[in-house]
Write a structure and sequence with these properties.
The complex is a heterotrimer of chains A (100), B (490) and C (471). Helices cover 38% and strands 8% of the residues of chain A. Chain A is mainly α. Chain A has a two-stranded antiparallel ribbon with strand order 2-3. Chain A is flat. Chain A starts with 6 loop residues before the first helix and ends in an 8-residue tail after the last strand. By secondary structure, chain B is of the alpha/beta class. Chain B has 15 helices and eleven strands. Chain B has an eleven-stranded mixed sheet with strand order 1-3-2-4-6-5-10-11-9-7-8, sandwiched between helices. In chain B, strand 10 and strand 11 form a beta hairpin. In chain B, helix 2 packs antiparallel against helix 3, helix 5 packs parallel to helix 6 and helix 9 crosses helix 12. Chain B is globular, with a radius of gyration of 21 Å. With 471 residues, chain C is of the alpha+beta class. Chain C is elongated. Classes of the chains: A mainly alpha (100), B alpha/beta (490), C alpha+beta (471). At the B-C interface, helix 9 and helix 10 of B face loops of C.
């Protein structure tokens, strides 16, 4: 099996998931995630040579809709749910840099 | 106090409302009265929609008076798990991050219930984002088991199961990702069905793990569960993973029995970890089926041994992606911070509970660079093996039998500190989700503690009708025993 | 500079010209009021689910077939990263199983540029940065409009087969022509419906291995693409010649200062955690569907250029311009009506940039014949053509109306002889071999005939007279 998950791994993963962990949570999650991953070790050890992955239990393909417009939502209703709005747009704090 | 229509079968309520013999308004009031009495103790609901329910009932009664037929669930109150979107009605997933959010649209199942004349009576409590097996992971406090308030109702559809068990509603909808309908049904002593993946539209079901989630009914009886499933099932063009089949006919053949059916008792799900009293009830169920003419044998479905591990990689992985959208930008909670990135972090850190964070972390890790092949990729292959082994078993058997939950309802707080022990309570229910096959939990007596035990009947894809016939046979067997006991009592 | 070779590969994102978005029925429209073309699906509201747009698949397949790609069974994946203009905080895109693979685009100069893949994905919303002069780094806050979120895109990834800024521009122009011809996109860079990122590296001329590349973003026109490539190549060469290394990074083109700048890079590499999108099922267009799409494909620019060159014998540069202007059908029509191919192409290249107006193939053909027969000079033909564009009509009649009448052979000879007689000194110089004097005589004849003489005919007559003069 792979090396045990470390506190650094957990911190890195929290960053990817946009979560902040307290020291206490970091310690607890490191132990708990390690326990679950240890349990998953039987899966890791299983010989699945030549076995195709299943992403989906249904044997469906080509589910398509016609390119025909349907009414959407009222802007007022959409923006009413937003934490902050300006000029009919969703307002967010500065973004600092383009996307990845 | 017992109110006239509570604990009546849904089919009977609907029939009397359709015939004008009973007013939908009364039905609603009687159920609201029952709720008023016991809800403080049970806490099945996050929110009651009593005002809307009264108005809907009024409309049903008017339609009946005008000679119209409001549909097969006319005037029947239905409790909705609070991860099903209801237009203009708060839908929270029992999470702070969605508190106060009003969906601008109805889930397809909610629309179909309305078209069938059903009346939504409230939104039921759940483990936050359906992640849990006890309904303790709710941001709004746990639900209590109506049979013993010191015990959990199971989860994650614990509110729906408790609502049905307590007579708050004759019917409820839940969602099942790894057993979240069947396990609370078992622990609360009601019938719970996880249909074939794709049988019921997921449109408007707030996603936990998209390739595993499925909506299904909870009801006091097999017949009522079948009736509700007939109403909500069927192809939906808004869900790409919806099975392109008409809704199944389930109620009609329910009494056809199990004569000649081959039933396999799954050895892998009867062993270690299953409490002896629960195992004895499954054995009794096997005997009851054999007594009704089924051919019952023990069998092995080897890959099920790996099901739990695969599930706890796949479900968190999908969840980590599904729950990314709760970022404080468009709806729900926002905790302010100087930049968008820090606002995202502050919002998510404050808005999600510990179990949700744990699963997001686990799933993010399982998908992250360097671990995908070892964890997520491998789990997807195990999924193939589970499907393959089930298919092999179904060459020899029409149905499979197992416990639903390894134990009866456990005390609140008993497993809260140890996530892995909580995860292990899903061991019997998870394989059906991995395979996309249907399964039902049907009450079959009680354990040594006097609490309900559910047995699980598993079937191949789209074989709900056969599966529910067998469930009805077990239900009849319990009824016969109860009547025999009643007669024996002087 | 001559010791170095520039290597460029382009990633072009292009919005498909569908009526609706990739996964929902919201309108795919540019310039509407903010947040008016939105629904639960493209806003990523909890519980919503995507359903793939058949029209988008068809346009992607059209483009793929036009680029000579194999259309393969494909899958959608989720690309996970947080960004406020992405409603679900993941982008649905095709990852290791794209729909179109392994094609090529032929440029007007004959270069074949390999196409690695052309896959489907969804667009993001649009952020406006408020304060700090609109610059993202200095903004006070940002505003997001989700009208564009979920609009279907194809990302067309070329192989690193381009060798200069000029070639890269030619590639983008040619790709635009294919996008327009197939109807896949309106391909407007200025509206952002066509967006280009460039992977640029340099290597010593003659090397077969590639240098370290930089990806340059924010190229809003073919002009900035060219400038950015030239700048980036110079920057990299300067580094290498100074004995330094080129760092692999993503850089941002700044149109104002004409430089590329490294993008803020996180300490850790991005980790997109791709996995198969569980809300969608596989896409595998069958042969019947592909056959249908293929049958509906119009002739593509490369094929049209080939056809026009073969039919008229014109040079590639002229043919390329005519096809780019979409005038090849007119020229071929006029050719079929008996026109002079080479002259038709010359006019289409030089005289019809402003459109063809009322010009029809028959009149165009007749005009080129008058010119070929010597009845009209090139200058006169151009004037007549302008009239035909403006108001139509018969070219001979138009020429007549303009006072362009063909000079008879005798009339022209008379004018030439008169000019020789009037300028004996010049004629002596001509006979002595001073070729420049030929122009003088042409001018004299033109003046005498008020421009109705054909210069070439005058030159020929002068030569004839000289040969007849006893030496």
């Amino acid at each position: 099996m792979s090396e045990r998950i470390t506190a650094e791994d957990v911190t890195h993963v929290a960053g990817l998931a946009r979560l902040e962990l307290s020291d206490d949570e970091l310690e607890r999650f490191t132990v708990q995630l390690a326990a679950v991953l240890d349990h998953a070790a039987d899966v890791e050890a299983l010989d699945t040579e030549g076995v195709a992955p299943t992403a989906h239990p249904l044997p469906l393909a080509n589910v398509l809709r016609d390119d025909v417009a349907r009414p959407g939502l009222e802007r007022a209703e959409v923006l009413a749910a937003a934490p902050a709005v300006e000029a009919d747009r969703f307002r967010v704090p500065p973004v600092l840099g383009p996307p990845a | 106090m017992r109110h006239a229509s509570t604990y009546l079968p849904a089919a009977e309520i609907a029939d009397s409302v359709r015939r004008g013999e009973r007013a939908a308004v009364e039905v609603v009031e009687e159920h609201l009265a029952t709720i008023a009495e016991r809800e403080p103790e049970v806490h099945a609901f996050n929110a009651l929609t009593d005002a809307q329910a009264r108005m809907a009932a009024e409309l049903i009664d008017r339609r009946v008076a005008a000679g119209e037929d409001p549909g097969p669930l006319a005037g029947v109150p239905v409790a909705l798990k609070d991860n099903l979107c209801t237009a203009g009605v708060p839908t929270t997933c029992s999470s702070r991050i969605l508190e106060g959010w009003l969906p601008p649209y109805d889930a397809t199942v909610v629309t179909r219930l309305g078209l069938a004349g059903a009346i939504a009576i409230g939104k039921t409590n759940l483990d936050e984002f359906a992640m849990g097996s006890s309904t303790e992971n709710s941001a709004f406090g746990p639900t209590h088991n109506p049979h013993d308030a010191s015990r959990v109702p199971g989860g994650s559809s614990g509110g729906s199961a408790a609502a049905v068990a307590a007579g708050f509603a004759p019917l409820a909808l839940g969602s099942d990702t790894g057993g979240s309908i069947r396990q609370p049904a078992a622990l609360c002593g009601v019938v719970g069905v996880k249909p074939t993946y794709g049988r019921v539209s997921r449109y408007g079901l707030i996603a936990f793990a998209s390739s595993l989630d499925q909506i299904g009914p909870l009801a006091p009886t097999v017949a009522d569960a079948a009736l509700l499933l007939e109403v909500v099932a069927g192809h939906d063009p808004l869900d790409s993973t919806s099975v392109p089949e008409p809704p199944p006919s389930l109620v009609a053949g329910l009494d056809d029995g199990v004569e000649g059916l081959r039933v396999g008792v799954v050895a892998e799900l009867m062993g270690q970890g299953v409490a002896p009293d629960v195992r004895r009830r499954v054995e009794a169920a096997a005997e009851a089926l054999a007594g009704a003419g089924a051919k019952v044998e023990e069998t092995s479905v080897a890959a099920l041994a790996y099901g739990l591990s695969a599930y706890y990689l796949i479900a968190p992985a999908e969840a980590s992606s599904n729950l990314a959208r709760y970022d404080g930008v468009r709806y729900g909670l926002r905790v302010d911070a100087p930049t968008t990135a820090t606002m995202n972090v502050a919002t998510r850190t404050a808005g999600f509970g510990p179990e949700v964070k744990r699963r997001i972390m686990l799933g993010t890790y399982a998908l992250s660079a360097g671990y995908y092949d070892a964890y997520y990729g491998k789990a997807q292959k195990v999924r193939t093996l589970v499907i393959r082994d089930f298919a092999a078993a179904y060459e020899s058997f029409d149905l499979l039998l197992s416990p639903t939950s390894p134990t009866t309802a456990f005390p609140l707080g008993a497993k809260a500190a140890d996530p892995l022990s909580m995860y292990l309570s899903d061991v019997c229910t998870i394989p059906s989700n991995l395979a996309g096959d249907p399964a039902v939990s049907v009450p079959f007596g009680t354990g040594d503690d006097g609490l309900p035990v559910g047995v699980q009947i598993l079937a191949p894809a789209l074989a709900e009708a056969t599966m529910l016939r067998a469930a009805a046979v077990l239900e009849d067997a319990m009824l016969d025993q109860a009547m025999a006991r009643a007669e024996a009592t002087p | 500079m001559s010791d170095w070779e520039t290597v460029v590969g382009l990633e072009v994102h292009c919005e498909l010209a569908t009526a609706t978005k990739l996964f929902c029925g919201c309108r795919n429209a540019f310039g509407d009021e903010p947040n008016t073309n939105v629904c639960p699906v493209c806003l990523g509201l909890p519980g919503s689910l995507p359903v793939l747009n058949r029209g988008a698949v068809e346009l992607a397949v059209r483009l793929g077939l036009a680029l000579g790609c194999r259309v393969e069974p494909s899958l959608f994946h989720r690309k996970n990263y947080f960004y406020p203009d992405m409603p679900k905080d993941y982008q649905v895109s095709q990852y290791d199983r794209p729909i179109n693979v392994d094609g090529a685009l032929e440029l007007p100069d004959g270069t074949r540029v390999g196409i690695e893949r052309a896959h489907l994905e969804e667009d993001t919303g649009k952020s406006t940065h408020v304060g700090g002069g609109g610059r993202i780094h200095e903004a006070d806050h940002s505003l997001v409009d989700y009208n564009r979120a979920g609009v279907p895109l194809v990302e067309i990834v070329s192989r690193p087969d381009l060798r200069s800024a000029e070639q890269a521009r030619a590639y983008v122009n040619e790709l635009r022509a294919v996008l327009l011809a197939t109807g896949a996109s309106d391909a407007r860079m200025e509206e952002g419906s066509l967006r280009v990122d460039a992977n640029i590296s340099v290597r010593p001329a003659g090397f077969s291995t590639f240098g370290t590349r930089c990806e340059v973003k924010n190229l809003n026109s073919t002009r900035s693409l060219g400038r950015a490539i030239d700048y980036e190549a110079r920057r990299q060469i300067a580094l290498l010649e100074a004995g330094e290394q080129v760092a692999q990074q993503t850089r941002h083109w700044d149109e104002a200062d004409g430089r590329t700048h490294p993008l803020r890079s996180k300490e850790e590499a991005y980790d997109y955690r791709y996995f198969p999108e569980p809300d969608l099922v596989p896409l595998a267009p069958d042969d019947a569907w592909l056959g249908q799409v293929r049958a509906g494909l119009p002739p593509l620019p490369a094929e049209r250029r080939r056809r026009l060159a073969e039919a008229t014998g014109s040079v590639p540069a002229a043919v390329a311009v005519v096809v780019e202007r979409g005038l090849d059908d007119l020229v071929l029509g006029a050719l079929a009506a008996g026109g002079d191919g080479r002259r038709l192409v010359v006019h289409a290249e030089h005289d019809l940039a402003g459109g063809t107006g009322a010009l029809d193939p028959e009149a165009f053909a007749a005009l080129s014949r008058l010119e070929a027969d010597g009845a009209l000079t090139a200058t006169q033909a151009k004037a007549v053509l302008a009239e035909l564009v403006a108001g139509g009509g018969d070219p001979a009649a138009v020429a007549e109306r303009l006072g362009f009448r063909a000079l008879g052979g005798d009339e022209l000879a008379g004018a030439v002889d008169a000019a020789i007689a009037a300028n004996p000194d010049a004629w002596d110089r001509y006979l002595a071999g001073d070729a420049k004097v030929s122009g003088f005589f042409v001018g004299q004849v033109m003046r005498a005939t008020r421009g109705q003489a054909d210069g070439k005919a005058v030159t020929a007559l002068l030569a004839q007279r000289a040969a007849a003069t006893p030496g």
